[in-house]
């Protein structure tokens, strides 16, 4: 079976767009969560969120004038930026006209795509103005629009598809791409995920009362993973992308290698035994962690750092307990653990891929970013693991960190854990 490595990455996150800026932001604990007047005017309880800042001049670097005409899908915008940046970062070029990259494919997921375009289309259709929809309304509103967009730009001829598994989507895409290369069905895969922003995506969560409503005047301290004062997750959006490649091919072409993908696991708790549409079945989570380690050929003691799902809800302490039981490690023996969501909010379907990028950057560049807004570690977590394993500011690891486990747990009781190794 083939070894699989990561040779390129790209990101459009609420706290930074572009790999270099993103690494700087996570090292410095920079928050991308802001107040949105529009949400206040719509009477949202939670009037804050995370949204990548993409100025018009940046759009012109990724889209032609024809593509920009009528473009109204934030998810596609973020996904194309992250995907093309990852491809370029891997020292790859789109295939020339008339040529197809049959050994290269794309698995790029999303949860919901083109909501604003849908709204625009509904108004035009109801007004009897269907012909004003334009030629891009279909590709902007179909779930696989992002993979179709990237597939056409890059000229990929292997599997080109879109997956969708709620908050697990991005991590699942990485594992699906890994499995395709591992099995010898592709030499290279662009994996990632994206998500739209705005009231029509975030409104349902506000209605469920699972978003914080008391930090509208202090948005940057609102997302509080593992904190005793956490009151819900802050919604976010964006995209992350990683180029996965056959190890021998990467070595042959002299590619830069960020890390190796050792393996992972995906499963579901069946919404049974404590699992539900919104809560994970703990046994399934522990099974997913254990199987991910087994599939990666490592022991629980080998894990140096966990990048958790950890959304700043009451489930954070349950997630920590599941890690403690699956690894059979607690107190000072527990690995370091962090959550990106204090800085970005919960980017929903984009979260897994953005967090995979953050995870790999830590391995490659020997640091552990801090958990911001976690001064008051939840007492249920304090009873399980040592406080020092939850760093509040960036730690330089000096090459001592070799193995990172990244987890995502999504609506519908679905789970994914991927294991990365420093190389």
From TrEMBL:
Entry annotated with the keyword Membrane: no
Annotated GO MF terms: 3-oxoacyl-[acyl-carrier-protein] synthase activity
Entry keywords, A to Z: Acyltransferase, Cytoplasm, Transferase
Catalytic activity: a fatty acyl-[ACP] + malonyl-[ACP] + H(+) = a 3-oxoacyl-[ACP] + holo-[ACP] + CO2; (3Z)-decenoyl-[ACP] + malonyl-[ACP] + H(+) = 3-oxo-(5Z)-dodecenoyl-[ACP] + holo-[ACP] + CO2
EC number(s) on file: 2.3.1.41
Entry keyword Acyltransferase: yes
Domain called Ketosynthase family 3 (KS3): residue spans: 1-422
Stored Gene3D superfamilies: 3.40.47.10
Pfam families, alphabetized: ketoacyl-synt (PF00109), Ketoacyl-synt_C (PF02801)
Family: Belongs to the thiolase-like superfamily. Beta-ketoacyl-ACP synthases family.
Annotated protein name in UniProt: 3-oxoacyl-[acyl-carrier-protein] synthase 1
Protein species of origin: Antarcticibacterium flavum
């Amino acid at each position: 079976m083939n070894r699989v490595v990561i040779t390129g990455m790209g990101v459009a996150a609420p706290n930074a767009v572009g790999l270099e800026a993103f690494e700087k932001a996570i090292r410095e604990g920079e928050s991308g969560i802001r107040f949105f007047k529009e949400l206040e005017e719509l009477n949202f309880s939670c009037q804050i969120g995370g949204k990548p800042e993409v100025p018009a001049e940046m759009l012109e670097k990724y889209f032609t004038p024809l593509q920009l005409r009528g473009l109204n899908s934030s998810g596609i915008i973020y996904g194309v930026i992250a995907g093309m940046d990852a491809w370029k970062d891997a020292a790859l070029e789109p295939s020339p006209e008339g040529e197809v990259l049959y050994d290269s494919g794309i698995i790029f997921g999303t949860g919901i795509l083109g909501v604003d375009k849908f709204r625009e289309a509904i108004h035009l259709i109801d007004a009897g103005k269907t012909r004003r929809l334009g030629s891009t309304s279909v590709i902007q509103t179909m779930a696989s629009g992002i993979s179709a967009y990237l597939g056409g730009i890059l000229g990929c001829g292997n599997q080109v598809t879109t997956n969708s598994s709620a908050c697990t989507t991005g991590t699942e895409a990485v594992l699906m791409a890994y499995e395709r290369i591992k099995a010898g069905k592709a030499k290279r895969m662009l994996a990632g995920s994206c998500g739209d922003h705005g009231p029509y995506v975030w409104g349902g969560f506000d209605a469920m009362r699972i978003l914080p409503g008391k930090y509208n005047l202090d948005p940057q301290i609102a997302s509080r993973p593992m904190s005793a004062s956490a009151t819900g997750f802050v919604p976010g959006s964006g995209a992350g992308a990683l180029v996965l490649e056959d190890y021998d091919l990467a070595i042959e072409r002299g590619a830069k290698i960020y890390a190796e993908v050792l393996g992972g696991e995906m499963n579901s708790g069946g919404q049974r035994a404590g699992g539900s549409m919104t809560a994970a079945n703990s046994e399934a989570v522990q099974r997913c962690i254990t199987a991910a380690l087994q599939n990666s050929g490592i022991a629980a003691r080998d894990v140096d750092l966990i990048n958790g799902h950890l959304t700043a809800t009451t489930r954070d302490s349950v997630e920590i307990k599941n890690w403690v039981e699956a690894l059979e490690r607690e107190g000072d023996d527990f690995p370091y653990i962090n959550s990106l969501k204090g800085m970005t909010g919960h980017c929903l379907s984009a979260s897994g891929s953005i967090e995979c990028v953050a995870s790999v950057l830590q391995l490659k560049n020997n640091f552990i970013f801090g958990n911001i807004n976690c001064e008051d570690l939840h007492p249920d977590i304090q009873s399980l693991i040592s406080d020092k394993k939850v760093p509040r500011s960036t730690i330089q690891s000096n090459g001592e960190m070799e193995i990172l486990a990244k987890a995502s747990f999504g609506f519908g009781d679905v789970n994914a854990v991927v294991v990365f190794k420093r190389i």
